[in-house]
Write a sequence for this structure.
DNA sequence: GAAGATTACGAGTGATTGCTCGTGTTTTTC
DNA sequence: GAAAAACACGAGCAATCACTCGTAATCTTC
């Protein structure tokens, strides 16, 4: 139906334009976090960025393109956080507790630092384009967790490991949403509970049939 | 600002009207589940119910009233499911595994049976009226979980128990969303993983400092 | 069986939203 | 320094949505 092709004339951005784009994305993150995706209007995003609606559309073809660009930003940073967290972790060398510790902290930190992230990914009707953008990250993350589980519990077969990895990811998602919406003073102890839950689950996975 | 008073003239519904209201709610649940709350238009709900937009507004004052009524329905049934699940459970008499078993199964069943539920409660900008409707159920559920945790782990103080109960609820929420969106054949084993996670968490809560 | 209430219709209204367009300013390119 | 490109504006358009209203059919009550 519509044109899904690349922009036929990629315009050469000036330094000013690049700055504006970053400002717009920051403004969009703020408005998305405050109102959610649907209720966030492009005019409000423009106002938050201190520019006119017309200017906004010189940099992004539509509202979804803004969300998509924001997602790309998040993906880069989240990917870095995950990679940094999970790559250093050596299941053999570290204890289970420390392993979970190093994996959970950066993820919690990222979610606290980027409230717009939740607003985009918690929405019930995620458009396929955004879902597709998230997929590689999810896959990579799941694969890494799966691999760690494989080292922890070698007697589990592939199917079981895949299920366990998925379960881990969703446990984190569920408790993260609790942590981010909780009183700041409650966040450290709740993060501790998340770690306890993951440790308990993984131990059970190693020990029990 | 607006009138928050009761309907000044509570009209006497005919049997036909009661039937229509149920039909409208069923149609709304379908459309909410399919499109999410924001994207679900009142005209689409009316069409799904096989009536005109005008007729819809003879039974519900606005779109949110439909959601509210649907939530009330869900609350009744969910409350029944939870009560049935948790009231029978006697932590002293039953083992931990059976306890978790009886608590989890009906909750999973409810979420599978009512796809509209997620669409209403997963949305990022839940209006206060809907949140208020959900609050009593959440409080009751949390209190019951807290009580069970108290019996399992008497050495924990109130603050710790409250945190643990919250964590349990959010673990369930996170993995439930995985279960409902998974392939039907994967649902039973994933439900097993949820139970394993809860057991692992609760055991760790009982055993470790 | 008539009066009054309820149910039903569906084109239409006012408000809102994503987005455009004509116009003017600033920066780059030659 | 002039032409071209990028940036900026903001009033307003077309489309959409929640909701209304005038009218008519159906049911209840007496």
């Amino acid at each position: 139906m519509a044109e899904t092709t690349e922009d036929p004339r990629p315009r050469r951005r000036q330094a000013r334009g690049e700055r504006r784009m970053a400002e717009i994305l920051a403004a969009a993150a703020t408005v998305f976090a405050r109102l959610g995706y649907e209720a966030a209007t492009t005019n409000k995003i423009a106002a938050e960025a201190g520019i006119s609606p017309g200017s906004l559309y010189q940099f992004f073809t539509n509202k979804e393109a803004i969300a998509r660009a924001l997602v790309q930003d998040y993906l880069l940073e989240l990917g870095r956080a995950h990679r940094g967290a999970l790559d250093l972790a050596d299941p053999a060398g570290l204890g289970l507790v420390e392993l979970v510790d190093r994996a959970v902290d950066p993820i919690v930190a990222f979610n606290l630092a980027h409230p717009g992230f939740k607003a985009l990914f918690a929405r019930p009707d995620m458009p396929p384009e955004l879902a597709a953008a998230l997929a590689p990250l999810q896959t990579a993350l799941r694969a890494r967790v799966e691999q760690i589980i494989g080292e922890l519990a070698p007697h589990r077969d592939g199917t079981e490991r895949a299920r366990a990895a998925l379960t881990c990811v969703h446990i984190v998602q569920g408790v993260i949403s609790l942590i981010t919406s909780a009183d700041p003073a409650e966040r450290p102890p709740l993060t501790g509970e998340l770690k306890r839950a993951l440790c308990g689950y993984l131990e059970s996975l190693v020990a029990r049939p």
Observations:
- Residues 75 and 81 of chain A are 10 Å apart (CA to CA).
- Chain A has a mean pLDDT of 89.
